[in-house]
Design goal:
Layout (H helix, E strand, L loop, with lengths): L2 H20 L54 E2 L5 E3 L14 E3 L14 E3 L14 E3 L14 E3 L14 E3 L14 E3 L14 E3 L14 E3 L14 E3 L14 E3 L14 E3 L13 E3 L10 E2 L2 E3 L9 E2 L3 E3 L14 E3 L14 E3 L14 E3 L14 E3 L14 E3 L14 E3 L14 E3 L14 E3 L4 E2 L8 E3 L4 E2 L5 E3 L32 H6 L3 E3 L3 H8 L14 H12 L2 E3 L2 H10 L7 E2 L9 E2 L5 H31 L11 E2 L10 E8 L6 E6 L5 E6 L5 E8 L6 E9 L2 E10 L2
Parallel strand pairs: 2-3, 3-4, 4-5, 5-6, 6-7, 7-8, 8-9, 9-10, 10-11, 11-12, 12-13, 13-14, 14-16, 15-17, 18-19, 19-20, 20-21, 21-22, 22-23, 23-24, 24-25, 25-26, 26-28, 27-29, 28-30
Antiparallel strand pairs: 1-2, 31-32, 33-34, 35-36, 36-39, 37-38, 37-40, 40-41
Length: 740
């Protein structure tokens, strides 16, 4: 502003002031001496037509009765109603309110009684009385305001020690500095809300905003060093670099941004999102989302974190914990869950007490509970299944709603979907099981074939069943294979001895036996059996029962030691029966013999329960005993008869026995003999190599020469003997050889 313009303004103001004071002002000058001699109106008759002074000469001073004056202070003043002040002691005298405006050094100096105040300058609104809609801009703005109002201040030390508070807004260096007694504060700028007293509904924006705020309340701060060393806490919210920086003391904290909740002190209901979220927090109900979320949190509590480095070095956290990208991502109401790893427990929504460690462990779980998964993709497909425990890569991976299963080892229970109560220990154990329940497998590849079978047990490397749907099958030992339901197999095809220190006991309590009948076949059944010797085809047996579908790139090869064991076992000559022959013999006489274990499936083979042969053997002995008793009685009768008639005594020399023809023979052979003149009975008896009587043929009661054709269809190849017995006396014995 030029001096000429300034002089014009002052002149115009003086005229107005004079008019206000005297009611009539001169409009022309007639008493001016040389060099200026004018006699015309001061007020121009058109805009910009007249000048006051000149470029070369200045006016010195203007003096007014109650208007502007520089000497002795009061400078530019209008008072009453629409008040305006400009200058040093601007404001009052004796003002009573209304639309105050003050520009200058002591602007609005002690104004009474307030109203719509506006002030600009040093000490502006200096100790205002009594307040209302204050606005101040400049050094010491709103300096010790009394008694406040809807305060707004912009500038150095704005709202400087404000008294007494109200709806404060301050923008500038040291804004809201030591405000007393604050209220609905808003501040933006360097040192905003600097040492606020006392608190209230604070909002601050800028470097060091909410700088050492006292005493707290509903704080919101956005900017560099936001909520810096806030005291004392309450409903804190901060966003920006070092947000909630060293907050003291706690409150319902929420922070978004770099170093969010950085070294928070001391804790409370913390929520932080962003890089360094909850950085070194201390402590309470923490929630953090983002890079380094819950970064070095101290000292824990009810933490929830999801994202890169979530719960990073958490100390000392409690209840729900999440580690890794997307870990526990969808969890909504689930409690006490722990997840560690990429996508671990990613789909969990309401499930509780789950623990997942490993990439994508328990990945699909939604409402499942009380599950524990350790290993990459362990329990991967579980949705609602409960009480499962899985440890090992891909263990229980396909499980969806199956419950109460335990898997330990690589691929253990891999295919299980709905199965319940299964236990697999060892890599690939129960690998193919899908819906089977309550199976137990211990050992690598154990029960790996089972799919839908229930209540099966396998213990030992590759101990298994030969089909996937068996029930209550048990296999014990390396490569032991159960081939039917309700079957127990101990050892594999190369085992040479099974035993212990006591005989096997079968349940045989008469109280629990029904339909008891004495209809066991004896001699007729025993005589039809073919006792044989044989070698086992171990390789053929193994190929018959080998139906496993292990998930291997290349099947495991038979070891050299196992090859040797198979070769040695195939050299052993066994004595026994052929199960099919025993089955045929029993069917021929209509005997339901329980000693034959017929195949129950395509993969099963015939077996014999040799202990069962004791019963028909006992029956045969009983029958022989009865025959012997009958013969004994017959002999006694003959002796008695001979005693009465000695001439009837048998002359053995009158009887003879010839060699069978042909000999050796196949199928049948002819035996010639001679009988004496007098005899009661004659028999031809056939014996095996051990002297056991196999057949007894009654001969014709006629004397002289005779012959009999012996059918050996029921006999096995080997050496036999035959004897002629007349009236209980041995006439002779011959040997014969049967070949098949």
């Amino acid at each position: 502003m030029t001096r000429k313009t300034y002089a014009t303004i002052l002149l115009a103001l003086s005229v107005v002031c004079a008019e206000k004071t005297n009611g009539q002002a001169n409009t022309s000058l007639s008493n001016l001496a040389n060099p200026t001699s004018i006699n015309q109106h001061l007020i121009p008759n058109a805009s910009n037509l007249r000048d006051i002074g000149s470029a070369a000469n200045n006016w010195r001073n203007f003096y007014f009765g109650t208007g502007i004056y520089f000497g002795n202070s009061l400078t530019v003043h209008l008072s009453g109603t629409d008040n305006f002040f400009a200058g040093r002691n601007a404001g009052n005298p004796a003002l009573t309110g209304l639309s105050n405006t003050g520009v200058g050094n002591y602007a609005l100096d002690n104004v009474t009684t307030g109203s719509n105040n506006t002030s600009l300058g040093f000490r502006s609104l200096n100790s205002l009385t009594t307040g209302t809609n204050n606005t101040a801009l400049g050094f010491r703005t709103l300096y010790s305001t009394t008694t406040a109002g809807y305060n707004t201040a912009v500038g150095y030390r704005s709202l400087y020690t404000n008294t007494t508070g109200a709806n404060n807004t301050a923008i500038g260096y040291q804004t809201l500095q030591a405000s007393t007694t604050a209220n609905n504060n808003t501040a933006g700028g360097y040192s905003s809300l600097y040492s606020t007293t006392t608190g209230s509904n604070n909002t601050a924006y800028g470097y060091r905003s909410l700088y050492t705020n006292t005493t707290g309340a509903r704080n919101v701060a956005i900017g560099h060093n936001t909520l810096t060393l806030n005291t004392t806490g309450q409903y804190n919210s901060g966003e920006g670099y070092e947000a909630l920086y060293s907050n003291t003391t706690g409150g319902y904290n929420a922070a978004v941004g770099t170093y969010a909740l950085r070294t928070n002190s001391t804790g409370s209901y913390n929520t932080a999102t962003g890089y360094g979220a909850l950085y070194s927090n201390t402590t309470n109900y923490n929630t953090a989302y983002g890079a380094f979320s819950l970064y070095n949190n101290t000292t824990g509590s009810y933490n929830t974190a999801a994202g890169y480095a979530a719960l990073y070095i958490n100390t000392t956290g409690t209840r729900n914990s999440a580690f890794g990208h997307y870990a526990l991502e969808v969890n909504s109401t689930g409690n006490d869950n722990t997840a560690a790893g990429y996508y671990a427990l990613q789909s969990n929504s309401t499930g509780t007490n789950n623990t997942a460690t490993g990439s994508q462990a328990l990945y699909t779980a939604t409402t499942a509970g009380y599950n524990t998964a350790v290993g990459s993709q362990a329990l991967y497909s579980t949705t609602t299944g409960n009480y499962n425990t899985s440890a090992g890569y891909y263990s229980l991976r396909a499980n969806s709603t199956g419950s109460s299963s335990s898997a330990y080892g690589y691929y253990a229970l891999y295919s299980n979907t709905l199965g319940i109560g299964n236990t697999g220990i060892g890599s690939y154990s129960l690998e193919s099981n899908t819906t089977g329940d309550y199976n137990a497998a211990l050992g690598r590849f154990s029960l790996s074939v089972n799919t839908t079978g229930n209540y099966n047990t396998a213990v030992g490397y590759s101990a298994d069943v030969s089909a996937g749907s068996f029930t209550n099958a048990t296999a014990l030992g390396y490569n032991a294979t159960a081939t039917a339901s309700n079957q127990v197999r101990i050892g594999n095809s190369t085992v040479t001895s099974i035993g212990g220190y006591a005989n096997w006991s079968n349940i045989s309590d008469g109280r629990y036996k029904k339909n008891v009948k004495e209809n066991v076949a004896g001699l007729d059944f025993i005589n039809r059996l073919k006792a044989v010797t044989y070698n086992l085809d171990i390789a053929g047996l193994n190929n018959k029962m080998e139906t496993r579908t292990r998930s291997l790139t290349t099947p495991e090869k038979i070891s050299e030691s196992e090859r040797r064991a198979i070769a040695e076992k195939e050299k052993v000559i066994y004595s026994g029966f052929v199960a099919q022959d025993v089955e045929k013999a029993a069917k021929e006489i209509g005997y339901e013999f329980s000693g034959v274990d017929a195949p129950k499936s395509e993969t099963d083979v015939y077996g014999l329960r040799y202990a069962e042969f004791v019963v028909p053997l006992v029956k045969a002995v009983q029958e022989l005993s009865q025959q012997n008793e009958a013969m004994r009685q017959e002999i006694a009768e003959l002796k008695a008869m001979i005693g009465k008639n000695p001439s009837a005594v048998l002359n053995v020399s009158d009887a003879s026995l010839e060699q069978n023809t042909p000999n050796p023979f196949k199928g049948s052979t002819v035996i010639n003999y001679s009988l004496p003149q007098r005899f009661a009975s004659a028999q031809l008896v056939v014996y095996d190599a051990s002297g056991k009587a196999l057949k007894q043929l009654n001969l014709s009661s006629q004397q002289g020469k005779g012959r009999i054709t012996l059918d050996a269809a029921t006999l096995s190849s080997g050496a036999y003997s035959y004897s002629l017995v007349v009236d209980g006396k041995l006439v002779g014995t011959k040997k014969m050889l049967l070949s098949k």
